[in-house]
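The records we work with from here on pair a chain with its fold. These numbers are not coordinates but entries in a learned vocabulary of local backbone shapes. To see the layout at work, look at the sequence and tokens printed below:
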Amino acid sequence: MPGSDDIIEHAADFLRRISPEGRAAARRRRERRKAAFMRIAKRVVLACLAVLAVVMATGFILPHGIGPEGVFLTMIAMALVSVAIILWSRTPDFTPEKVASTDLHLLPSQTGEWLEKQRPALPSPAQRQLDQLTASLDAITPQLAALDARSPEALEARRLIGDELPELVRGYQKVPPSLRRQPLNGGPSPDKQLVEGLGTIGEEIARMNARLADNDLKALATQNRFLEIKYKGDGEMGE
């Protein structure tokens, strides 16, 4: 029979899923899956069309066409090509150990997908934090795509998103489940430490995004001022 803690956990999970953050996170997951499916489907269709083009060209060259055997072989070729593309298009599972070799602009999405796989093993309050973190990771992705991978900002983002965030979750997972809700040594429980740690990282990602956006805004303002001086100033002088 479920205990009171389990009932509270299930109720919190239900509230999380129907909350605006939970619905937004679920929508983002559906959109990512749909986008991945459409990419693979497009590759399969193009490859099959290429096979058909080759077969049709061959049929025009051969005196008697390709015949029934050629049609059968064409279908087999299209099936093999489709399977090969599907297998080739599968994204390898992301692990925190692959951070160093991951492109910076792909790091937020891959870390977010890794976190989604850890979600079932995390307490409901931490799952709510993951919803907010996923939104922050999506928001900072365009900013990271424009960064030089060797810049201090890029190195800081790689350390925070690809190292410290996964390490926090893995450190929590090493704690025996029976001890996760209990305060340890007079301090907060591992559950609470995880939630607070995720909140801290989420706030830092938001600050990082704001700093990067501020640099872009300053660059835009500088360019606008330059254009005003160059063109409006010249016009006024010409008058």
The chain has two domains: 1-90, 101-239. The mean pLDDT is 81. The radius of gyration is 26 Å.
